[in-house]
Structures are given as structure tokens and as C-alpha cells.
Amino acid sequence: MEHALVVCYSHTGVSLRLADLLCSHTGWPMGVVTDERPRSGASGTLRCIADSLLRRQPAIRYEGPDPSNFRTVVLVSPVWMRGLSGPMRTFVAQYARRLHRVAVIVTMNTGGWENVVAEIAARTGPAPYVSANAMVKAAFTSKEIEADGFGGRLEEFARRLQPGAAMPSRAPAPFVAIHPGESAGT
């Protein structure tokens, strides 16, 4: 079984930029989730809002390696309306039983990362390291990504997923979540 796979959904390109950097830093392969129906223009934006508020699972395409062949799957998704993006919700629903261990990177404008992590944990079930408290996770703001001010935290995130790195227990641990404005060791 291979070590880690990065699976990304990106509507604007911000999440994809972060996922690309993570893959280039670690050598991990990437799978990409895309909308079956494009989300361009005002109607696309309205669908984003409706998918989030109604927790819909829109039709998607997934192009990449089979997640079941990896010990860890890193899900990279934007926050929509303080919740999980619809296309990533669909991916998680379709692949939950194939995910051995999940880590999450969230991109956002202002907040909502906690809701995304909680929903992914609830949808993936009781597998090891899938509870919201035990999941390795990081949140990055769009401004931080545009200013290239996130590299150290992204490297720390990747380091926590390397074989032999101490994994958190199911109890809350302050070092697990790496949020904007915090150093990686706090």
C-alpha cells in the first residue's frame, strides 16, 4: 500500500494551487475532483450556494489513483458558505469506505474550516484517525495563499503525515490543527 494521495476539488484554483505545492513538496500523487456540470457565471455561483446550504451531492468526475491503494488520503477543499464544498461532499460520500486514514486541508476566505472537518469526519465513519479531533488538518486563507505566506505550515502538515510521525490519539491534541495565524508547534 502506498503512503499518501492528495485529492483536490478547486472551483477557483486556490485549493489546486495548494494541492500542487503539497504534491511537489512530498512527491505524493494527486487525484482531481471536477464538476460534471461546469459552475461558470452567476448560475454556477448560485449552485455553489445551494449545494452548500442544502448539503447536496452534485455529480462529479474523479480522475486519479484509487484511494483504497493509499494509507492516507489528504482531502483539499474550499469552504463554501461555512461548509464543505458540494463536489468534495460527493467524493467523500462515494469513496468513504475506501479511505483508510483521512487528513484535511481547507482553503477559505474567513472561516468555516471546523464545519468542513466535522462533516468529513461524520461522513467517513469510525475508521482510525477519522474523528475530527484525531484528524490531521490545516486551514489556509485565500489571502495567505495568494501572498505565498503558508509554506512553513504546509511543510509541517506534510511532516505530520510521514511514516513514523506521531499520530494524534482520538483525544483532542493542540498540535494537530494548524490554523491561520498560529505557528506549527502550538
TrEMBL record:
It comes from the Bacteria. This is Flavodoxin. It comes from Caenimonas aquaedulcis. SUPFAM superfamilies: Flavoproteins (SSF52218).
